[in-house]
Fold this sequence. Notes:
Mean pLDDT: 96
Helix content: 40-55%
Bound molecules: NADP nicotinamide-adenine-dinucleotide phosphate
Oligomer: single chain
Number of domains: 2
Amino acid sequence: xxxxxxxxxxxxxxxxxxxxxxxxxxxxxxxxxxxxxxxxxxxxxxxxxxxxxxxxxxxxxxxxxxxxxxxxxxxxxxxxxxxxxxxxxxxxxxxxxxxxxxxxxxxxxxxxxxxxxxxxxxxxxxxxxxxxxxxxxxxxxxxxxxxxxxxxxxxxxxxxxxxxxxxxxxxxxxxxxxxxxxxxxxxxxxxxxxxxxxxxxxxxxxxxxxxxxxxxxxxxxxxxxxxxxxxxxxxxxxxxxxxxxxxxxxxx
Length: 252
Ligand SMILES: NC(=O)c1ccc[n+]([C@@H]2O[C@H](COP(=O)([O-])OP(=O)(O)OC[C@H]3O[C@@H](n4cnc5c(N)ncnc54)[C@H](OP(=O)(O)O)[C@@H]3O)[C@@H](O)[C@H]2O)c1
């Protein structure tokens, strides 16, 4: 099968990287010429990746077309392109809903998918909406697939996927605090990365218990973990998190 990407940016690069680390059998991957330097690099690195002359050529050459442009660009370019009825359109665009996508592409075969950059390592959750066996069988090689029937629910997942920068900032603040206590930056960062990696792996390994229970089991009454949790709650750290989630949710 030939697949194509409109928009050769961050997420396209990650998906293509994941594809070539997987056992997926793809004949050719056609990508749009923008971004110029990324598309050039991708085609240099992977022989099966071909830079097309323009967006329409990507569509014409591909059975599946991934929309990997920003919402503004999508709203501008999609209506000018022609999607043959046989094409499967897979939108990665955060804020254009399926009905609008169907209208502007004049194609009924439209899905929305939420990959994350870790797809390049073939890790992380991948939301597919609506349920689609072909897409599931494709994306199961690239991460943990979660299928949704309701597009409204996918908005909630979009909101939580916006926590990447603030999560990394939590790591950054943690290691900067270590540095302020006289630890070398390098040691502080290595320690922090390993700590948060182990915590995340632990949460996945203990998936038989709820996250609420994990919170309980990771503290001794009156201990240091209990103290930090209580103080953060007192300072409304988690209430602020919920408020921010509600605010970002409105954008999707
Ligand atoms: N990054 C993520 O983790 C992630 C995850 C899930 C979904 N998404 C969604 O995927 C979409 C792309 O995100 P991204 O992070 O990959 O953004 P990005 O790195 O900015 O990529 C967007 C690409 O679109 C290209 N482009 C601009 N105008 C174009 C046109 N007229 N025709 C074709 N391509 C054009 C840009 O090229 P120039 O640089 O030349 O302008 C750029 O290469 C967004 O809608 C985003 O919400 C992203």
